[in-house]
Amino acid sequence: MIENVEKAKHHMPEQTGRGEKRATVSGKINRRLIEILFPALSVLIFVTCYIAALAVTNLSYQVTEGQTKNAVDTVDEFFNGKKSAVGILSYNKELCQLLEEAPTAEQIAGAPGKEAAVTLLKRAYDTMVSDGVQAVWLAGIGNDTYLMQTGEAWAANLADIDWDERVRETMGPVVTDPFSDPVTGKMVISIVAPVLSLDGSNITGYVGFDVFQDHFSQLLQDIRIGEGGTLELVTGDESLVYSFDASLINKKVEEVENLGREYLEGIRNQYTGSMTYSYEGKKYYSIFAKSEATGWATVGSIPVEEINAPRNQLIAVMVVISLLILITVIIIVIRLVRKLLSPLSDIAVNVEGFSKGDFSVNLEIDSDDEIGLLADSVKGTIQSLREMISHATEVLAELSDGNLRLTVDGVYDGEFGKIKDALEEIVRSLNDTLGRIYESADQVSEGAAQLSFGAQSLSQGAAEQAGAIENLAAVIQEVSNQVDHNAGNAKTASDKSKELGSEILEQNRQMQKLKEAMDDIRMNSGEIGEIIRVIEDIAFQTNLLALNAAVEAARAGDAGRGFAVVAEEIRSLAGKSAEASKNTAELIEKSVRSVKHGAGIVDTAAQALEVVAQESVKMTDTVDRISKASEEQSRSITEITRNITQIASVVQTNSATAEESAAASEELSSQAQLLKDYVSRFQLDR
C-alpha cells in the first residue's frame, strides 16, 4: 500500500494549471472536518468551561451559604438550649418567693429563701457549666442586686442595662448584646428570662446565664469560610459580636475602615441574602443571615478572587485537557481518514494510467465499503474497455486486410453498444459501397466496350462515306466535263440525248444511293449521340459513386485511406470520360448538321437530275437552250463540288472523332477494369 501511495505521489500532478498544488481528497476531508470540529469543539469547550465555571462558582456560593448557615445553626444551637434552661428556671417558685421576701438589697442576706435559691442557681450552674455558662444569677428589680450561684451579692444597676426593654417586650428569654460584666470586667453575653411574681401579674426580677464573649468566639473559630473568608456576628446596634479579625470585635460596623457601604446598608436594613462588597480593596461575596436565637446578623464572606481561583484553575485545566482532546481527536480523524481513503491513491494511479492508454490494471483493494465498490467498478470498466478495444482492433485489422466477410461479436454493454453498431454499420456500408462500385465498374466496362464497338462502326461507316463521296466527286467531275463539252457538242446533243438520258438516269440512281448513304450517316450520327449520352450518364454515375466512396473512406479514417485514393482516381477518370464524351457530342452534332446540309444539297441535286432526265426527252427540241442550261448546270455543279468537298471534310472529321472515341472507350474500359481489380482486393459479403 505504501508503494502505491508513493506511486500516486509520482504519477499524480503536483500542480494544477494555475501553479497551485493539487489538493488530495483526504486533505479536503480533513480540512472540512477540522473546519467543522474545531469550531464545534471550541464551542463545546467554551460551553463546558462556562457551565463548569458557573457550577464551581455556584458551589463556592453554596459552600459560603452553607458555612454561614452552619454558623447560624451553631449560634442558635448554643443559645437555644440555654434559653430553654433559663426559661424553665425563671418559673421556679423559690426564686419568685426570694424576690418577694427581699424587695431590697439589705433584705437578701437574711431572706429565708436565699439558701434554697442559691442552691437552685448552683445546681443550674453545675448543669450548664459544661456548655460554656460562666455564671448563673438572679437579679431583683426592687433590690437591684445580683445573687450569684456562689451566694455572693453584687449591685446590679439594672437601670443602666439595655436588654430590660427587650425582655419586657418578649416576656421570655432573650440573648443580650455583649456587655462588660460589672463583677469580672469581662465582656459577657447573658441569656436572660423574666421572673414573674407569684400571682404572675408583673415582673419582679430576672434570672440569667452569663457566657464570656471569648468563650463564644472560640466556639466559632472552627467555622471557616473558605481559605480567606470571614465570619461576623453583628448586633442590632451594629456592633461586631464576632469576627475572624479579633481587633474588630465589639466595634461598630461604621467604624471599620475601608469597608464597603453595601455592608453597612445590609446590616441596617436587616438584609438576608447574598451581596458583594469591598473591604480593604478586595471584593467579597457575602451571605447575610439572621440568628433566630439572638436576632444578630450573621455575615459569611469570602473573597471573590478565592471563588474565582478554582473556577479559573478549572477553566485552565479544562482548556488544556480540551485542547489535548481536540488535538488527539483531530490526529485520530486525520489518520482514520487517510487510512480509509488511502485506497483512492491506488485507484487514482490506475485511472491515470488508464487515461494514458495503460490497461494493465492492478487493483487489489480488500474493502466492502463504497471505496471497494469504486475499485471494483474501475477495474471492471477498464477490463471491459480493454476487451472492447481488443475486439474493435481485430475488426479494424480485418477491414484493413480487405476482409469484409466478418461479424462484430464482442460484448458491448450499455452505451458501448453504439461502438458495436458503428462497426457493424462500417462493415455493412463498405460491403454495400464497394459492391456498388464493383457493379458500376462492370457496367462502365461493358458500356465502354459497346461505345468502342460503336465508335469503330462509326469509323468504318465514315470511311465508306468517304469512298462514296470520292465516287460522287468523280461523277460530279465527269458531269462537269460533260457539261463543259455540252456547248461544243450541242450539235451532236440530239444524237447523244438518249445516251445522255440514260447516263442521267444512272446518275440519278447514284444520287439516290448517295442520299441513302447520307441518311445512313445521319442515323448513325444520332446513334453515336445516344451512345455519347450513355457515356456521359455512366461518367456522371461513376463520379457520384466515387464521391460516395470518398465520403465513406473519410469516415473509415486511416483504414479507408487507400480506398479514398482509388475513389479519387475513379472520379478523375469519370471526369475525363465526361469531358471526352462532351467533346465527341459537340463534334457529332456538328457532323449531323453538316450531314443534314449535305443531304439537302443531295436532294437538290437529285431533283435537278430528275429534271434533267425529264428534260432530256425534250433535249432535241431545246438544243438552243442547252448552252444556257449547261452554263447553269456548270455553276450548280461547281457549288455541288464545293459542298461535296465540305461533306468529305466532315466525314473525315467524323472518322477521326470516331477513332478518338474508340481510343477513349478503350481507355475507359481499361480504367474500369483497373477499378474492378482494386475492388476485388476486398472480400465482400455478397
Task: Describe the overall structure.
- Helix 8 packs parallel to helix 9.
- Strand 1 and strand 2 form a beta hairpin.
- The radius of gyration is 75 Å and the shape is rod-shaped.
- Strands 1, 2, 3, 4, 5, 6 and 7 form a seven-stranded antiparallel sheet that branches. It has a five-stranded antiparallel sheet with strand order 9-8-12-11-10, with helices on both faces.
- The chain folds into two domains: 247 residues, PAS domain (Beta-Lactamase, 2-Layer Sandwich), CATH 3.30.450; 237 residues, Orthogonal Bundle (Helix Hairpins).
- The protein has 13 helices and twelve strands.
- The chain is of the alpha+beta class and 686 residues long.
- The N terminus is likely disordered.
- It is a multi-pass membrane protein.
- This is Methyl-accepting chemotaxis protein signaling domain protein.
- It comes from Hungatella hathewayi DSM 13479.
- Its main location: membrane.
- It is found in: Cell membrane.
Task: Indicate the topology.
Blueprint: H1 2-11, H2 25-90, H3 93-101, H4 114-128, E1 135-140, E2 145-148, E3 153-155, H5 164-170, E4 174-175, E5 179-180, E6 187-196, E7 203-212, H6 213-220, E8 230-234, E9 240-242, H7 261-268, E10 273-279, E11 282-290, E12 297-303, H8 304-355, H9 370-400, H10 417-488, H11 493-556, H12 561-617, H13 623-679
Antiparallel strand pairs: 1-2, 1-7, 2-3, 4-6, 5-6, 6-7, 8-9, 8-12, 10-11, 11-12
Helix pairs in contact: 1-8, 2-8, 8-9, 10-11, 10-13, 11-12, 12-13
Short structural description:
The chain is α+β, with helices and mostly antiparallel strands and 686 residues long. The chain is built from 13 helices and 12 strands.
